[in-house]
Amino acid sequence: MLSTRLAASLTGRGIYYGWVVAAVTFLTMLVTAAAVGAPGVLIVPLEKEFGWQTAEISSALAIRLLLFGLMGPFAAAFMNRFGLRRVILVALSLIGGGMLASLAMTKVWQLILLWGVVVGFGTGLVALVLGATVATRWFTERRGLVIGLLTASSATGQLVFLPLMAQVTEHLGWRSALLLVCGLQAVAAIAVILFMRDRPSDLSLAPYGEGAVVPPPANAASLWSLVSAPIEALREASRSSMFWVLFGTFFICGASTNGLIQTHFISLCGDYGLAAVSAAGVLAMMGAFDFVGTVGSGWLSDRYDNRWLLFWYYGLRGLSLLYLPFTDFSFYGLSLFAMFYGLDWIATVPPTVKLAAQHFGREKANLVFGWVFAGHQLGAATAAFGAGLSRTVLDSYLPAFFAAGALCLIAAALVLLPRDRAAQPAPAQ
């Protein structure tokens, strides 16, 4: 296999093959995130073409976000049972197939089925759990940095492609924008086929920072374990106060990012006279700051108390959301918001993953984080539908943004509650 020859060549040059796996994962999460973020550009075009209400479209997006999260713990079990490559290829096929089929949709139920269920399942298989799995399997040293890089790819991909998709939608129509997303999935699938490996032991390598090869655990004897393993992980983790704090704060994280800003920010700006392309440009600016902030968060999470990092991230995000309605939606005001909000868009992930790994162990970390991420997407789905309902019933998005800001301040306080010794960060590597 090409990956075997490449790994041998890189090892001879003192380069660890795990960085290639991380790069392929980065690409996969980047283009998958483009599929997650695309509907934020397409709400208005769908309203104009089909006459659908914001609340109707938001219901499909809420289902997508909910499945995106609820698949997390089961995706981790699939990865443990069938391997990373197979799961990723199935996910990319579902996303591309759902997007292609939606080119011919004419009814709301078709939107819900394709964008909500099919794409929701596909994106859920390669959500942030994929990055957490790769980082914990392949890296012991630099784990926080790798988590930061992979998390940044997911969050940044949801934002940086939006200006391009907005331009394509404006000039060529929303169907052309979906074709662009499908092409990106195909590129990622080729990279996965050529370079992805499941574990370091597949190449007789040790995890980065360790001296001994770690053999893979024995596969489960039956497919029932794909259901029972996540449920058992939840049963054990639910006894810990750390799990519930991570779950609750990640619920708020999802409600204040994917479900709100990613889904409704462009429509919100349209209510104040800002064109979709310009609003998408603001989101792309957030994406640039998010990349810096999330990678920096990974670096910080290797060195400082992760609970205090989360305190500052949630607190600053809450203040920025409360500030947004007072920007007057001018270029200066939105740029200031994009900078502060973007820096911790999803900087919360590296400390959260580190706390899960430290508290629940390497082999169960991805399963536990999958349930924590389910909380994230439950919050995202709640905000996606709630904000759309607010826009339909109250003719304003602003109540949803004020509520999200207040919840972030609550999360900042909640994250300091656990005092478990096991939850304290490990010394810097």
What does this structure look like?
The chain is an all-alpha fold and 429 residues long. The chain has one domain (2-203, 229-423): Up-down Bundle (Growth Hormone, Chain: A). It is 77% helix and 0% strand. It has helices at residues 2-12, 18-37, 39-50, 54-82, 84-101, 108-125, 128-138, 143-160, 162-172, 174-195, 225-237, 241-255, 258-271, 276-301, 306-323, 331-343, 349-360, 362-393, 398-414.
Quick summary:
The protein is an all-alpha fold. The chain contains 19 helices and no strands.
Assigned CATH superfamily: MFS general substrate transporter like domains
Which segments are poorly predicted (pLDDT under 50) over 5 or more consecutive residues?
421-429
How widely separated are the two ends?
33 Å
Give me the Rg, rounded.
20 Å
Instruction: Tell me, briefly, the overall form.
Output: globular
Strand content: under 5%
Keywords:
Growth Hormone, Chain: A; disordered C terminus; mainly alpha; 429 residues; 19 helices
Topology readout:
Elements: H1 2-12, H2 18-37, H3 39-50, H4 54-82, H5 84-101, H6 108-125, H7 128-138, H8 143-160, H9 162-172, H10 174-195, H11 225-237, H12 241-255, H13 258-271, H14 276-301, H15 306-323, H16 331-343, H17 349-360, H18 362-393, H19 398-414
Helix pairs in contact: 2-7, 2-8, 2-10, 3-4, 3-9, 3-13, 4-5, 4-6, 4-7, 4-11, 4-18, 5-6, 5-10, 7-8, 7-18, 8-14, 8-17, 9-10, 9-14, 11-18, 12-17, 12-18, 12-19, 13-14, 13-18, 14-16, 14-17, 15-17, 15-19, 17-18, 18-19
